[in-house]
Amino acid sequence: MNEETERVRDEFLAESQELVESLSRDLLLIDHGQKHNALDPDLVNAVFRGVHTLKGIAGMFGYGELSETAHVLEDLLDQIRLGKISLEQSTLDVLFEGVEVLQRLLGAVRGESHEVDVALFRDAVRSITSATKVATVDPLAAYDIGDDVLGVLTEYEEHRLRANAEQKNPLHRLRVRFPLSSIDSDLEAVKRRLKPVAEIITYLPSIEGSGDDAIELEVLLASRATIGELRTLAGTDAVETVRLRVPESRTVPPPRMTEDGDVFRRDSKPPQRTPTLPPAMIIPESSQRDMGAEGIAVRAVSKTVRVDITKLDHLMNLIGELGILKSSVGRVLERMGHHTEMRPISADLQRVHRSFERHLAALQDGLLDVRMVPIGQTFERLARAVRQVAREHGKEVRLVVNGGDTEIDKLIVEELIDPLLHLIRNAVGHGTELPQERLRLGKDPSAIIALNAYQKGNHVVIEVEDDGAGIDTKRVLARAVERDLVSADAARELDDHAIRQLVFLPGFSTANAVTDISGRGVGLDVVRTNIGRLGGVIDLHSTVGVGTKFTLTLPITLAIVNSLVMRVASHTFAIPLTVVQEALALSEYEQRVVDGREMITLRGQSLPIVRLASLFKLGTPPNPKAFVVVTALGQRRVGLVVDALEGQQDIVTKPLGKSLHRVRGFSGATDLGDQRVILVLDAPALLDEALENESPLAERRMTSGGTA
Amino acid sequence: MMERVLIVDDSAAMRHFLRASIERLGLAREIREASSGLEAMRVLPREPLDLLLVDVNMPDIHGLEVIRWVRASPAHAQLPVIVISSEASSKDRARGLTLGADAWLDKPFTDEQLDATVRAVIEKRRGAKTP
To answer: What pTM value is reported for the model?
Structure first.
């Protein structure tokens, strides 16, 4: 595959993924609308259009299965939007399943999953589609619309026109003139204002009215609002408003708009004609200037660019590189400062250096900003899972989402989906009670699951909360003791909060056992490990009978890491604080040697320790004032012995580069900003080393890095 | 070889695919893109064009409306127009042709089909101009 075709294929995959995601989002809105008897035909049409586009592009790129599946869904949606099939919950189930099938097929295209057999699904959809069609009398015949207009409508638009005619909704043509320079945002604004009172059928570009600096559109719409209201809503650019007349000779009741006396009075005047519009009532109108210019600019889709996140990583590395260069320049400046004759130049350079530093910081902030996406995108995928699991278990669940616009690193978002799905499935499937049980307990039969997100300093907090049965500590404890996860003696020491944390232990539960207790713990150890890998922590609070809340605290970005800076001999190192549990003075703990390995006892538990000075062969005598930095990943812990702690700092880690990539134990280098470039410790590698292998990290002695 | 062709499609993947095909076939020297009917309306009056490739299913101003608008403007009355679509509705298809599209090309199509359709449409238009 050459580079160009690969690029086009990537484009295809990205677009398809977006289409499927917005499909899922719109279906959820439709589901909601259907349940509240407020189905938005625009949404159904949007879903149809998405599937239609997917069918087209998948076909062009030769993905037959994907195209064919989109095709059957398109047929189904076409009949739904044309009113030939009514939208039942069972039909929605099929559509939701369709989203899953499309996701799987896309996964197969990307090579992530195996081929998917979709024949069964397609047959199921086809069986719905082949349902009988209803013949109706054409209510449009009652309106004077004109063949020139009908001739340009798509079949769907004609259907919507007809559906409104059946409801006896008055039809209007609104002529609006838009300046060429701002038509995109102006049109969006008009749409947004009209939407609450009118259904827009289509926009007809007017040939006569459009010129070099403006485009005139005739908006064909159905609305019960008065002409005056429509005119006001259309705003400053409305040229004229036309109401399509129902001829009196026809045996169709007049539009039910008796409050709109205005219309009927004007109706008695001889009808005027627009060149493009046959018999209709016209109300010429001088452009109203009473509405201010639309303040909110709508961000057009065409102004966004899709970027592979690895490219952003690359840019971040370059910024790291620039940071190191900046430090080098700083060192040169310092040397220049020692020479009197260079002072004037060095002062100039100092100014440039400071300005460079500011811009570099701004560049870094800007790049971080680009990586950020609203967490709400993920929540939408979870909403689908809630609906599905609730239906499977016969539960009634209402999902409440707060803070969907909270932004977080795109990479973290992607890694969060699985853990959150896990928590959501647990919450719906096991955390909440059945409707009848809830009624018996005096609760609302429909349970609430809340997804809350908010920013807290440099972290994003995500809460998954339910108002279910809560976690019974007695049963958790019994289970933990039974499974030998905690001794009966130690168990007596634990408070309720500590007991609930036991559900995170590996081997705490099987699915069966958990359902017995209160529905928690299925693979929660895995969830915790995954969150930990992202540099986050998970916590759990629960009250019996009231509900359970999982709290995930995550760094906003993986590109900048809050780290502990520490000294070993004359070298300085950093370690991400997310893996550091605590730091202790080594002298206060009794040290012993077990199987040739140094240990200390920390609150009754053995903790292996590793002296970084000897591990890195820095050859310094034992330091009586040494510190132990307790480093943990999941259940594995080790104490790193260092000479001094310097404090914490946000750092951008830069990879070590090809020539050093074999050196284990370091994840990269960073610039501390005070002209020191230091190595960042790779916690997982150090843990592997300390817990599984006696030999030092690398045979070679560390020869670079540090501030020696 | 034509001077300039305009592709109107709201799918970026589709636009890029068409662009790659046209480049492979060497059909035009310059390829312009519009991602919506509105954008096409903005580009059209300013650019001399030799061919318009337009999708039907687009939000707001859809392909049929673009065709009607193009045909009504004197500058583009003779512009060769090919609809690139996979419209299920035969009604829409008939309307597109009635409104003045020269040909309707169904997705998916091969390079050969695109090439043949473009050449046939250009020939037909040339014949119409110089009878």
So the answer is: 0.52
